[in-house]
Design goal:
Strand order of the largest sheet: 2-1-3-10-4
CATH topology of the largest domain: D-Maltodextrin-Binding Protein, domain 2
Number of strands: 13
Number of helices: 9
CATH class of the largest domain: Alpha Beta
CATH architecture of the largest domain: 3-Layer(aba) Sandwich
Mean pLDDT: 93
CATH superfamily of the largest domain: Periplasmic binding protein-like II
Distance between the termini: 57 Å
Radius of gyration: 19 Å
Number of domains: 3
Largest sheet: 5 strands, mixed
Strand content: 15-25%
Helix content: 25-40%
Length: 312
């Protein structure tokens, strides 16, 4: 092919793994194509000890990379799908969504033989996610959750230093970094519903780059794209992000799309959760309808309360 593509990525070990993975896929599908990585520091990488919700949420991890893409300093960007806001900037589009890793969360305990039910009352669980914290407190109101920012290795080090009894991380990240032996318990969706897009990658390109869109076609996984489309439609309708404990997870089985979604109170005292099923081609409308159902069932009151809290 004789072409070089510049891939924009964050500098964390997991982000670099993801970018290298996409690079390898592209070069395998297109002999002669060469890809290089452009490492970019995002605002989210600079804010390490404070809740992301106070500084604009998940977009902090992608904006600097998207800006480089719009300035044509890179040709494509590789993100964790869960970091990508529901609305993309004008001029950008999703070029491909590769096959998804396991979307579930994982509990990593200081005492490896423990699980969630074995943690003592008052145990401190570290997580950077309001979604995880709210669901954990809903499941076990006697647990304490505390902020745990940083990349995977940093959070594991904080656990080993004794700052927490346990931490919760995305299983996909641990698998990709070959750290699955650290998992004490995989948290099933019934206990902790995954984040929108968790385990999936997003390859972002300029909207008018039709040639690159064609190059990326072999990397696109339609099944993953269907579930992610439903989840992101749910997110957009809930108007959620890092500052709202929302979750949604889609599963394709026997030709049908099942979708679970929820919104929880910040303190974990209340959780509104619903499920729906429909045709895969209706993924976006299923996500929107599920979000509206949850709003009507009491989710709107939770969203309003969170909004009032943010103003105080």
């Amino acid at each position: 092919m004789g072409k070089t593509l510049r891939i924009g990525t964050r500098r964390s070990p997991l982000a670099l793994w993801q970018a290298e993975h996409v690079k390898a896929l592209l070069e395998r599908h297109h002999p002669g194509l060469r890809c290089t990585l452009t490492r970019i520091v995002t605002e989210g990488d600079k804010i390490l000890e404070v809740s992301l919700a106070r500084f604009g949420g998940k977009g902090l991890f992608v904006k600097a990379i998207e800006d480089a893409l719009l300035r044509k300093e890179v040709d494509l960007a590789v993100h964790s799908m869960k970091d990508l806001p529901s609305d993309l900037p004008p001029g950008l589009a999703l070029g491909a969504i590769p096959h998804r890793e396991d979307p579930r969360d994982a509990l990593v305990c200081r005492e490896p033989d423990q699980g969630l039910d074995d943690l003592p009352a008052g145990a401190c669980v570290g997580t950077s996610s309001l979604r995880r914290a709210s669901q954990l407190r809903f499941y076990r109101s006697d647990l304490i959750t505390a902020q745990a920012r940083g990349n995977v290795e940093t959070r594991l080090r904080k656990l080993e230093e004794g700052r927490f009894h346990a931490i919760v991380l995305a299983l996909a990240g641990l698998n990709r970094l070959e750290l699955s032996d650290r998992v004490s318990q995989v948290l099933e969706p019934e206990v902790c519903l995954p984040a929108i897009g968790q385990g999936a990658l997003a390859i972002e390109i300029r909207e008018d780059d039709e040639a690159l869109s064609e190059i990326l076609r072999p990397l696109h996984d339609p099944a993953t794209a269907t579930t992610v489309t439903a989840e992101r439609a749910f997110l957009a309708t809930m108007e959620g992000g890092c500052h709202v404990p929302v979750a949604c997870h889609g599963v394709l089985s026997d030709g049908a799309l099942s979708l679970d979604g929820l919104v929880a109170g910040l303190d974990g005292s209340v959780c509104i959760r619903r499920r729906c099923q429909g045709a895969p081609e209706d993924a976006a409308s299923l996500g929107r309808n599920l979000a509206e159902e949850i709003r009507r069932a009491g989710g709107q009151e939770i969203l309003d309360e969170i909004a009032r809290t943010e103003l105080e």
